[in-house]
Fold this protein.
Amino acid sequence: MELVLAAAPDSALFRTHRRSRMSGESYTRWHNQPSDDEEDEAGGDGGGGARVSGGGGVTIVTSPSHHHHHHHLQHHQELTGAARARLLCVMVLVCLTCLSTGVLLGYYAGAAAGRGQEFILDEAAKEEEEVPPAEVLPSGDAIEEEEEEEEEMDVSASVLLQELKSDMIKGYMRQLKQTPKTLLADYLESTWKAQGLQTSRTSFTVNLSKPDPEQPNTVEVTYTDGHRELLNRLPQGLRSSPFLAFSAAGLVTGTVVYGHYGRREDLVKLQALKIPLKGAILLLRHGKIHDGSKVHNAEQAGAAGVLLYPDPQDFAGVNGLFPNGTGLPSDGVMWNTLNTVPGDPATPFLPSLYHIYKAPGASKTLPGIPAQTLSSETAGRVQELMGGPGVPEGWQGGLDTFYRVGGAWINGTGVVNVTLSVSNIVYQETLANVHATLPAQDNTKFLMLGCHYGSLYTESAAGMAGLLAISEAVGKAFPWGTQRKIIFSAWAAGEYGMIGSTEFAQLYSSWVDSSMLAYLSLDEMLQGTGSLRVSASPLLHEALRKAATKVAWPVGEAVSVRDGWRLQEPISNADVHFGSLASGSDYVSFAAQHGVPAAHFQVMGKEWKVTYDLRHTQYDTPAAYTSVLDPEYKWTYMLASLVGVTALVLSESHLPPVDFRELSGSLYNGWQMFLDAHSSALNNSGYDFSGVLGAILKEIEVMESTMTYLTEWYRDGPPPPPTSQYEEKDSRVGGSCGDLAPSLKDFRQIEERLQRVMSVKRGLLGPRGIGRTFTTHLMVGPDPEDPLEPSQYPHAARAITLALAQKTPWESVHQELSYILSALTSFRELFASEAVPETYPII
């Protein structure tokens, strides 16, 4: 027999994965095709060859020679009987020797393995006190596999960060600023195409709001001699009148009452002071709660109109007023929306399409009284004219005047009344969301990175510029595509109330429910500098921690984001902390309505304070962003890097890092917060809630064991394919993660685990429909009274508020608590195992 050794060409496996455009279905079809080995065994090339697949491997070819075969037969026939006997004895002796050797080797190998196992157990016993009791420990093989995958992820992150440059973000900000608002969608699409990405649009015709250009919104003072004084003259340099989107149109005249921030407790305090609110115009400060919630509260208290202004005490910024610092000048005016429910107000819970029912006139979700935004300069002039008693303790602001409650005018001013005229109009416009993506091996699951584009007036556009820079860097680092699909989305009309993203989620709800793995938000990236604030779903915490170790903190010593983030924590610097998701950004429809794990990234001032006070004003421009907020773009680059690497961790990890116990811990802590806030009301209601409250607590406690088991099962998934058998052909990593495809069996196990990640969060959703708030997540979400604040068990909390106000019976609270109990019980039934006593495993 002649042995011929030859270097094997690229295997079919390697070449197939270089194509990198397989969905889960196409992957299955590919994997069921015969491999090179199967073809050879079937005699595919007509020879007796055996081929070992794998890049850089060796092909062993056996070449039968008829000449040598014939000579061997002749020699065999010439052997004598004695020779044959000796040959037989030698063969028997060789067999016995091999057998004995094998037995001995097996014995010693087994003994060594036993001693190794004893050593491992002894070492584990020594370290047992150092290991948290709830920790899920991987096996030795799993640790080695995790280390290999960690090295691969380090390489991927490094290459991505080499491609991502701060100058890219700055350049995109400049181009976005120079592009007319009506051409922004075209610019985004052409930019993504130039980056080599595949693009698409989703369009909707929605209701928007704007001031009537022929009748500007005005605030006038009428004096006893009959003359009028216009207070809100258009600030110098503005090209259009400031306004509050979706304010009701109307003309109201009356006295002015100062209502602090317009929270319920503020208005209750005024009522306790016997200050008449009915028919009054309330002067309220921006901040603390959503502007729409302020106007809703004022309307419910009987007010006829609202004036909103940025008090200098709340908008002082750092280093003084702009242009020296980030504080808002006295003529600064804010553009905001009063729409507290995401999406087109005319089509709540439904996509805004032709033939879809649209609510006539003003939507029930919008305030019914007129409201207008003012500068602090104008508000100061109003406050100077107001009489009445001094304000309650803590209500004095930063205006250069003594604050009074109002309800009357100072004697001698000659003021009769104030007239507020709002002429906003509602009109229809067709909007376009723009999307871009790279090829992916697995199209069955996708994650989305998103940001809104456009504004009510002007903005720095840092978030959109960051998104474009990330997409360009990912495209360069992964020219062959990613393992899981990444979609970059630019949402239209975000500042009107997350309209573009909500309409998308409502139209494609089944796809979002079945296939969306996560959403990462870049809206309003910087609200200051000095600390990092990440609000995220519990199932993303592990991925975020991992990503934060691979990005550098922008200031101080050379540490990772995780360390810098941790050291700047205002709560505790033992580890990083995550906030709960509320509203105010485009993640809300995905997270609060569909249960998609989401994360919102923001750089804040120290102790998580907002110190960039130019946002949503005429001063919020790229020039201001560069001059007073982040001149070197260090913080902007850090945040874009963190978002990009987080996307890689989710898309390129064999199994994205998930610890389900983060969810059970979050639910338990949230439940304690809920009880602390509402136990007194429930106990004094006269209704017996003890049974349902006790059952909920028991289910949450059982969930801890269930989630521990689920974490073990998740991490016990198939190992990543070995990297050593492949050659890296490109200087980029664009093929490396994509090249290593799992077997069909492993692919199905991965698919099962990812499906479980999505089903866990979606299992916490309640009923969806008219009559409830826009959110469906039962455990955490935007506060129904103030969507900018997160709330624990928000639907039950809202039911308690309504019951206390005697608007609904206490039975409605029991119903909301029953939704929670039902969801938790379903969890126990679905995810139970032998590791959880007193449960009934069904999977």
